Amino acid sequence: MTYTHTLADPRVRTALDRMFAHAEQDDAVAARVDAELPGGRGPLSPLEHADAAAEIYMPISAAAGALLYNLVRAVRPTTIVEFGMSFGISTLYLAAAVRDNGTGRVVTTELSKDKIAAARRTFAETGLDDLITVLEGDARETLRDLDGPADFLLLDGWKDLCLPVLKLLEPRLRPGTLVVADDIVLSSLQPYLDYVRNPENGYHNVTFPVEDGLEISCRL
Fold first, then answer.
1. pTM
2. Contact at 8 Å (CB) between 116 and 124?
3. What is the pLDDT of residue 190?
């Protein structure tokens, strides 16, 4: 069977449809998880947070995924870095664009072992696993040894960690690199937004109104 682009590959389309369908239960699953967490304790560590959310998809929207695909096709980055893989929905959009560009790779990060195992099965099912490297652990540690520049950056992990991850990778961002952050309506992302929207920090920004909003920043 022939198809015009990798997102139309039945294996990819089936995987995305399945995961988006599961993600529709996120609110119910999150409510159950919250009810099961012990009360009277302090904030969760990143690993505890990841383990608690191991069943929650927290996906980008299909519209945001299509935008990411188009951006990657246009920019043709050599190395895409994704902070916060979850079950791999956004990763598939990124990898599909890399496949169709004929060059590049996706380096993605995730703390949850359960999500990593599920995502790796999906990547193999879709035939995109050869383009994706999964770094298991805290991205603030695993990305320190990134081999080479980050040519496109997607920040979709825990929102309070987006700014630390950006600052970690800033020395590897060349002029023209696009940095995309999801869920700009969340208050925990505000320190990040304040940083990239400050012209003194070297970015030019546009807010893209899909679902909970994307902030697209160009490194100057």
1. 0.91
2. no
3. 97
